Structure formats: C-alpha cells, structure tokens
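User: Run a structure prediction on this.
Assistant: Running it now.
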Amino acid sequence: MDSNFFFKKKNFKVKKLFSNLKDKKNFYVNSVKPLHLANKKDITFFDSIKYKNDALSTNGGICITTEILKRYLPNSVQKVIVKNVLYELAKVLKKIYPSADIDYPDSSLKVSKKYKYKSVKFGNNVLVGQNVKIGKNSIIGSNSIIEQNVKIGKDCVIGSGVVIKNSLIGDRVIVQDNCKIGQKGFGFIPIKKRNIKFPHIGKVVIADDVEIATACTIDRGSIDDTEIGKNTYLDNQVHIAHNVKIGSDCMIAGQVGFAGSSKIGNNVSIGGQAGVSGHLKIGNNVKIGGGSGVVKDIEDNQIVMGYPAVPFREFLKNKK
C-alpha cells in the first residue's frame, strides 16, 4: 500500500515511465521512496556518494542514478542512468503525483461541526477538511485550518491561526498561534532559465509531548518524511525544512533554521539564530551555541560554537 495517502496518485507501469530500461520488468509502480525505505515495486534515487551505504543495501525495484554511482547498487535493482538525477526524479514524481508540486487550497474544508468531535473544543471559525481525525479532549483555537486526512492525537492544544496539512500529530502536543505545518518545502531544479518545481510527497510526523511555539514553520518531506521526536520543544520562529529528522528530548531556541534532510540526534540543545546546513548528521547530546553555523557533521557529546561551528574550546582559543 502507498504510504503517501495525502496525495492523489496515478498508476503507471514501468514501461510507461522509463523507455530506456534494459531490463524491463513491467510492474505497476507502488510509490517513490528513499533508498533505505524502497521495496521491489518502488522507484528510488541515488544522486550522492554520501548515501552509498543506503544504496548498497536498498531493496528498491528501480533506481534513478548516474553512470558513476550505479556500481554501488545491488544487481537486483534496475538502473535508470541519467545526467541529472533530481531533474529526472521530479519529472517522474509529477507524473505519478500530479498535484504534489503546488499546495492547492483544500476544497473539502468546512466550518467544524462540534457534534462530529464531541469531546473536542473549537474556537470560532475553525475549518476542517474531510477524513480529519482529532483525539479526545483536544482544543483547536479560532481561525485555524486542519486540512483533509490530518490526524491529531488526544489532549492536544492547537492555537489560533494555525494551518496543519499533510501531517500526523501524536498525543499531548502543543502548537502555539500562527504555526504552519506540512506545507511544501523549498525545492526546484533550475533548467535552462526555468525552475522546475520538485513535488513533495512526504508528510510531517510529530511524536507525543512535543511543544511548538509561536510562528514556527515545518515543511513536509519531499520523498521521505519530516519528523520530530518525543518531548522535543521548539521556541518561536523555528524553521524546519523538508526531510529533517529531529530526535527526542531536544531543545531548539528561537529563529533556528534547519536546511533539508539533516538528522538531529536525541537530547540536542541549539541556541537562538543558529543554522544547520542540509544533509548533515548531528549526534546525540550535542550542544550548539547561539548564532552558530553548522556546515559539517557533529559526533555525539560535542559542544560547538561559531561560524563555521567548531568545538567550544577551539572557539574560545580563536577568540583570544
């Protein structure tokens, strides 16, 4: 079953999508997934040596990749060799999920009917889409929008002016006013003076006991999901880009920004206005000073600061 249930899907057989395949096993494509999640009827992609280990063990049926990288893929995987992996991937995504490149307004939205959610309290002018599920004893503030298929757990507090789409939210989660969760991230491919929009078919998954303060923005995943672990707290105006995964028990101060596809461990503390570049791995029990710029991986139990962020002792030494 396709896990991307927030987006309408068109069914294609392999031959309709890839005319240049040497080994044409003509099956219906289930979905498009990252290397580590793909199964034999999924399309995946491999565009960077950084994901070599995932490529070596992938179970994907078809992989879009380059001539140089194809040698790292198992023999069981059919290879589609291209020059620009992300461009070709965007074209395939657009065919299979034609509405995932633009966030169209949810036409199913209606003013919340209290009898449908007997133990949920609604403020004024709350709009709710079809197939939305909201757990017992949750509160939804005025002028908030909960779009179709969103799931919100029990004992949650959703503030006023919040927009939630393409998201699964756990129990006892607090989302303060004016947050935007689950919208399309910043993704496009510049080709011949044109910007080709990259469809985002992932979702946002927020675990239990998370608190998200005012005016945070959390983009949904592009191919993978964006995830926030249990008991993690975000301060005001934090931006989390597509595919970012933040662990449990983290403390993220105001105006921190995470670029796409970075992975943050458990019990990580990040000071205000710090920035984390894309596709990085931050270990467990890491502390990042305010205003720092993280541009490379950080191992467990480190304290870093500065731009670029360096171990704290080195930072102090450089300041002398």
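Residues 184 and 204 are 11 Å apart (CA to CA).
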